[in-house]
Design brief:
By secondary structure, the protein is an alpha/beta fold. It has twelve helices and twelve strands. Strands 2-8-7-6-5-3-4 form a seven-stranded mixed sheet, with helices on both faces. The protein binds pyridoxal-5'-phosphate.
């Protein structure tokens, strides 16, 4: 086999362990083992019929060609209307960029803004791509520790202490993966004040916006003037159970739309044409399917939180959003990677070590409850047995 010398930047590019653990779990399944999958970050619901039908109709209607790089105009308009209607932000279609999944919004934002000498602040634990893409871009990742004692929310005083003259981009994520936490209105106001005082650009990852258990969603975008320095990241993957469709969007300050569109042209050209018609149907169609999904997640959340808190050595906060629990496992005497490996290899439960989300994840596991109540209960029994 040819021994390729990879480009230096590849040594700085990390990965997402969820995909690696999934591969290991599938390999075990191929040997005949039965595995309960609590590692995956996607809703276990089908995409709603009216959305699938819209895609089929678009395919039959010949929407099978290249389309404009930032998205088809009617979808960009639909996104802007949707954001206004749901009270999230008032924006215009020319600020909306549609991408294949929400991940490219992160990638393009960081590539467009950050390079050598720039510092990027991001939550730890947090979605692993924030750190990975920042490092690959040649910028310096600066973790903001999220602590259980602060309900896994950003401690604004601590954040203030991490800001330097080189800080360029602040990434926040609420509702939060992996912790299930949510920023409060006061948090958002204080974060916005810091961003304005230190002239930071903010990337607010709100991909779990719809999956929340409290009455309201707080965002830095609610603060006057923040839309001019904030990129909103969201998409269809989680809200509409459409992870495989690859559909996401960003809303950008005016000056960033052209550079980000240029990055799209250089990498993906555009987002799948017929998927974008399905995306419109999702935003304009009935919402009761989303409500039912969130109610079901709430039911499972209550079962998994109660079950985990009943296992000696484990304690678990109640998540406010997304579909993950982030239990504290320090009472088991095991490290998080050791416990995750033991659960998979000996118990057949696939979970992620908290360290997959940064060093501050030591002492925690991430379990996804996007799985049936039956499987969740079986997994809880296995965890209890493994630890007794
Ligand atoms: C916090 C967070 N942001 C963004 C994404 C990316 O979502 P998409 O599938 O739309 O690329 C995920 C997916 O797991 C996520 O957890």
């Amino acid at each position: 086999m040819t021994d390729f010398r990879l480009a230096d930047r590849m040594s700085r590019l990390g990965t997402e362990s969820a995909f690696e653990v999934l591969a290991r779990a599938k390999a075990l399944e191929a040997t005949g083992r039965s595995i309960i999958h609590l590692e995956i970050g996607e809703p276990d619901f089908p995409t709603a019929d009216h959305i699938v039908e819209a895609a089929i109709e678009a395919l039959r209607g010949g929407h099978t060609h290249y389309v404009p790089a930032p998205g088809i105009p009617p979808l960009r308009e639909t996104v802007a209307n949707f954001l206004g209607r749901t009270g999230r932000m008032n924006t215009t279609p020319d600020r909306v960029v549609v991408t294949p999944g929400a991940k490219p919004i992160m990638f393009f934002t960081i590539l467009a803004l950050c390079g050598e000498g720039d510092e990027v602040l991001y939550p730890d634990p947090g979605f692993p791509m924030y750190e990975s893409i920042t490092a690959m871009a040649g910028a310096t990742p600066v973790p903001i520790p999220l602590r259980e004692a602060n309900s896994f929310r950003i401690d604004v005083d601590e954040l203030a202490g991490l800001i330097t003259e080189r800080s360029k981009l602040l990434i926040i994520n609420s509702p939060h993966n992996p912790c299930g936490s949510a920023l409060t209105r006061q948090d958002c106001e204080a974060i916005a004040e810091l961003a304005q005082r230190h002239d930071l650009t903010v990337l607010t990852d709100e991909v779990y916006w719809a999956i929340r258990y409290g009455p309201e969603h707080a965002s830095v975008l609610d603060v006057d003037g923040m839309a001019e320095r904030t990129i909103l990241l969201d998409g269809w993957s989680k809200t509409f159970a459409m992870t495989g469709w690859r559909l996401g969007f960003g809303v950008f300050p005016a000056a960033l739309v052209e550079p980000v569109t240029r990055l799209a042209i250089n990498s993906v050209s555009c987002t799948s044409a017929f998927s974008q018609y399905a995306a419109m149907a999702a935003l304009e169609g009935p919402w009761d399917g989303v409500d039912r999904m969130v109610e079901e997640f709430r039911r499972r959340r209550d079962i998994i939180v109660a079950g985990l808190n009943d296992i000696p050595g484990i304690s678990c906060l109640e998540p406010h959003g997304a579909f993950y629990v982030f239990p504290n496992i320090t009472g088991t005497g095991l490290t998080a990677p050791d416990l995750a490996a033991r659960l998979l290899n000996d118990g057949g439960v696939a979970a992620l070590s908290g360290t997959a989300f940064g060093p501050c994840g030591e002492g925690y596991l991430r379990l996804s409850y996007a799985n049936s109540v039956e499987n969740i209960k079986a997994a809880l029994d296995i965890i209890r047995k493994q630890l007794s």
